[in-house]
Amino acid sequence: MFWSKDKNKSDKQKKPKNNNKGLSGNKGVHQEQGRSQRIREEALANARSARAEIGEETLDKIAAMMTKKQQSSMEQAKRQIAEKDADRVADEILAMLDDK
């Protein structure tokens, strides 16, 4: 029964075991920051090389096409629908189908 628990058993169960499998202390934080910094630098180098290979003119054309697509009425409607409540959207679609 819950009122007759042995205090020694409950104390042993509450004490977490200290496993040092992960990173610990300042050393672990510095290692993780260094790793993160190396990944960022590698990603930036990859982006620079891709930009140089593709060319600024091509990138400008792609950016213009993406902007035009994002501003289209279809894309705006998709964004509005995604922001709304799914149940309400379903109800509105069913209402439109019933009207036809």
Structure description:
The protein is mainly α. The N and C termini lie far apart (66 Å). 0% of the residues are buried.
Short note summarizing the structure:
The protein is mainly α and 100 residues long. It has five helices and no strands.
Q: What topology emerges from the helices and strands here?
A:
Layout: H1 7-14, H2 25-54, H3 56-70, H4 73-83, H5 86-99
Tags for this model:
single chain; 100 residues; mainly alpha; 5 helices
Give the helices and strands as they follow along the chain.
HHHHH
Number of strands: 0
Ends: how far apart?
Answer: 66 Å
Overall shape: it is flat
DSSP strand content? under 5%
Kindly name the structural category. mainly alpha
Using only C-alpha atoms, the radius of gyration works out to 29 Å
Low-confidence stretches: none
Percent of residues in helical segments? over 70%
Biggest sheet record: none
Mean pLDDT: 80
Q: Helix tally? A: 5
